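Reviewer 2 asked us to include a model.

Predict the structure of this chain.
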Amino acid sequence: MSSVAECVDKRAVACAFGRAAANYDVVAKLQQQTGEFLMQQISGHPGRVVLDAGCGTGFFSHRWRQQGRQVIALDLASGMLAHAREKQAADYYLQGDIEHLGLADSSVDICFSNLVVQWCDNLSGVLTELYRVTRPGGLILFSTLAQGSLHELQQAWSAVDNYQHINHFLPQQMIKDACQDFRHRLISQVYRQQYSHILPLLGSLKGIGATHLHCGRQQGLMTRGRLTALEQAYPREDKHLPLSYQVVFGVIYRD
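Predicted model (structure tokens):
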């Protein structure tokens, strides 16, 4: 099952997040909120070895280490991994693709993946790979963006041109289907942010590397005219520009 309508440009993903590394933690408030909630789902699990799959700057790798756990930080972007290493966020660092983990079967106790799997081509394949490297009795914790995320921005862009500007996100039913072979539970939440103008809104997406990163995406300059047209077309709430994220949290139990 493909997780997106178009293939994900993995090289573009790595480059975009690598460029964002230096300022990522300043702007990545959504990631911090969802990661905190995801960590709360651990329910006192005693597992010692944690794989932070898609570790980014190592923000949550460090949090896991503070709990006395041994952490493997994995990321596709060398820039992110270098940032995590500089902060001494983990015990081990591994540059690699979450869809093809370079780890042995049953080698970790907890897999933690916060807002990463939406960048992958095949969600069920990713979950199977995380399940493979997790020991029996372990947990796989993940969060992902679902269809409906950024719908306000998509609506505004549709009034400006016919290009695809927003990444494709899975419907919640397809996320549920991808988990059907595992004992699991899913939680769905909406996170909403507000901006005074379009530039900081777009900057928040660029700052976390969340630009349109699918193969065949349209390249083009953001001219002043297009920016003005986008802001004029954007739906407003109390003079603010809202931006919504539909987030699905998953807990998979490794039997």
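Residues 1-5, 213-217 have pLDDT under 50 and may be disordered. DSSP finds ten helices and seven strands in the chain. We have added this to the supplementary material.
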